[in-house]
Amino acid sequence: MAFRVLILGCGSAIPTSRRHPSAQIVSVDEKYYLIDCGEGTQSRLRENKIKFQRIEQIFISHLHGDHYLGLIGLLQTMHLLGRTKPITVFAPGGLKKIIDTHFEISGHHINYPLTIETVDTEKHLKIFEDTKIEVYSLPLDHRVPCSGYLIKEKQKLPHLNIEKIKALNIPVAYFNSIKNGKDYQMPDGTIIKNEELTLPAEKSKSYAYCSDTAYYEPLIEQIKNTDTLYHEATFTDELSDRALQTKHSTAKQAATIAFKSNVKQLILGHFSNRYAQLTNHLAEAKEIFENPLLAEEGKWFDV
Amino acid sequence: MAFRVLILGCGSAIPTSRRHPSAQIVSVDEKYYLIDCGEGTQSRLRENKIKFQRIEQIFISHLHGDHYLGLIGLLQTMHLLGRTKPITVFAPGGLKKIIDTHFEISGHHINYPLTIETVDTEKHLKIFEDTKIEVYSLPLDHRVPCSGYLIKEKQKLPHLNIEKIKALNIPVAYFNSIKNGKDYQMPDGTIIKNEELTLPAEKSKSYAYCSDTAYYEPLIEQIKNTDTLYHEATFTDELSDRALQTKHSTAKQAATIAFKSNVKQLILGHFSNRYAQLTNHLAEAKEIFENPLLAEEGKWFDV
Fold it and tell me: Of A71, A169, A205, B117, which has the most beta carbons under 10 Å away?
């Protein structure tokens, strides 16, 4: 089962020709979830050939313009393209007022059910689940209420031990119940234990999105052992004062969070437009965390 | 004096890889005015190397998303880039509420004076003037209150008749007053009439932006003899029912308005995303108006 992240935008507040504002697609077994939706996300989705209607849910971290100003346009285009499937947008309080104001004044309407769910940015809670994933809020430390998101694949079913099943001549009709943990009773009454008929499932993976935030240690416990962490690194260490003042992180701080939470992979993102080159971000993070990666627009990362 | 229009977006509501939502720069003697500001206008400005801070005023036709969703991002970027010069945004009622809601919830502020002026979309009035231009509202017929804009260069000063002035040995100190219409008194008391000392000024030009609108005859009188008309042509004639229903125009209707108002040049724009090719738009308009032009993103048109 593929669990991947496509970076659509990894710049900070000022869009440049190099980098766009925040947005990314999390793809779990070909289901799409959109995290953040900066201005122009529609265009990025098209460039990357992501079908708008395949987006299941939208998660907005906070209501600074570079994280949500593409949302209204995207919701309207989904309508114009004929969407009927419901969508829920998770976001800190205030988004509903913004969206209602737009729809009231523009006279636009949309034909599909749209739900705005307010995320409590003070609590680490499960806020969503479907057949594939669970999503948890991650309180962050920014200038306005802000939540990261932890996306965990659900426990997967074990594989059938085909060799053993063939040897015992077990009919196909029993495969599903075996995958779901049942033992099997042979025609002669013998019970074959489930462990003998199955092989362990693949490990469920997890992805944490943490942007925007100052260096924030309470995160560490909540994202412990996560497979992949996307952590903002707006600045490098020489601007740590500016990071503190604007409640952003340096690449060094992002790497420290990654190291302390024992994540397996770190992707740095949300780079200030002052950096044309990101070699310093990488070098600085490498001193603390082995092999950090730089977010890159249009690139898929395996979780 | 150069009076030109740069098309930044000439698509309709659904942005595609071919066309972006509405926005254009009107440049009068190197002063920039922005008309409409669809999502992504910031990026279009950068692609076309237009310095954000040189934009003097912004005119929004109506509050459908494809005409204003890039505005908040642009206003914020202007702030982040250090703007101190005031700006006024002219728009139909409602924009102030949209902008105030965003700033209240996002906690953003901007350091330069921002004024939102409400345009009465029922009246043809002078709404703005500076040293170069006068701007008039143009009531349009759309599904929500909507105003086109007529931009007229101010009457220009005549040229000095240098030959005559040299022959009469008139000192430089009098040049300004002569340009401004004064006669000249010779040392012997003879009065030389201003007409003898000047040559006619270049004709002041005018540009009308009419998008979005159904076919709307009251426009004709208001834009009579305009040099260049940008008129929306969302559809071609075979979709005239759809045009009527959505209060848009066909290419044929745009050309009819251009013909009846005796404009010198017609630019068709605001094309529905269903048209990959625009040859039918052009052919249809040509039957009524000689030599119509198709809007093209990234292209400057002389008014």
Answer: A71
Q: Cα separation of B203 and A92, whole Å?
A: 56
Q: Does the annotation count B188 as an active-site position?
A: no
By CB atoms closer than 10 A (0-12, 13-18, 19+), residue A109 is: exposed
Using DSSP bridges, classify how beta strands A133-139 and A126-129 pair: parallel, antiparallel or unpaired: antiparallel
E strands within A60-182?
Answer: 87-91, 114-118, 126-129, 133-139, 147-153, 159-160
C-beta separation of A119 from A133 below 8 A: no
- Helices within chain B (DSSP H only): 41-47, 65-68, 71-80, 95-106, 162-168, 175-179, 194-197, 218-222, 240-246, 251-260, 279-286
Whether residue A130 has a cis bond before it, omega within 30° of 0 = no
Residue B13, pLDDT score: 85
Task: Return the closest-CA partner of residue A197 out of A170, A224, A235.
Answer: A170
φ and ψ of B143, to 5 deg: -75, -20
Q: B1 falls in which pLDDT band (50, 70, 90)?
A: low
Q: Which residue of B has its CA nearest to A107?
A: B144
**B15, A105: Cβ pair inside 8 Å?**
no
* Tokens linked to B179: 């340009």
ipTM of the complex: 0.89
Mean pLDDT throughout A277-298?
A: 97
Minimal CA–CA distance to A133: which of A27, A264, A265, A227?
A: A27
- Amino acid in position A271: F
Neighbours of A127 (CB within 10 A): 21
Query: Would you say residue A1 has pLDDT above 60?
Result: no
**pLDDT score recorded for residue A105:** 94
Q: Helix A95-106 to helix A71-80 angle, to the nearest 10 degrees?
A: 50
Q: What is the pLDDT of residues B94-121, one digit of tens each?
A: 999 999 999 999 988 899 999 999 999 9
> With an 8 Å Cβ cutoff, are A65 and B81 in contact?
no
Going by C-alpha positions, the residue among B183, B182, B186, B158 that lies closest to residue B170 is B186
The upper half-sphere exposure of residue A185, i.e. CA atoms within 13 Å in the direction of its Cβ, equals 3
- How does residue B265 score in pLDDT terms, banded at 50, 70 and 90? very high
Neighbours of B193 (CB within 10 A): 9
For chain A, list the domains and their CATH numbers: 3-156+202-302 (3.60.15.10), 159-199 (no CATH)
What values do phi and psi take at A284, rounded to 5?
-65, -40
Tell me the residues of B at the A interface, defined by beta carbons under 8 Å apart.
Answer: 13-17, 20-21, 39-40, 42-43, 46-47, 63-66, 69-70, 72-73, 76-77, 80-81, 94-95, 97-98, 101-102, 105-108, 143-144
Scan for tokens 């002052």, then name that residue. Answer: A274
Parallel, antiparallel or unpaired: strands A265-269 and A228-232: parallel
Q: Above pLDDT 70, what percent of chain B? A: 100
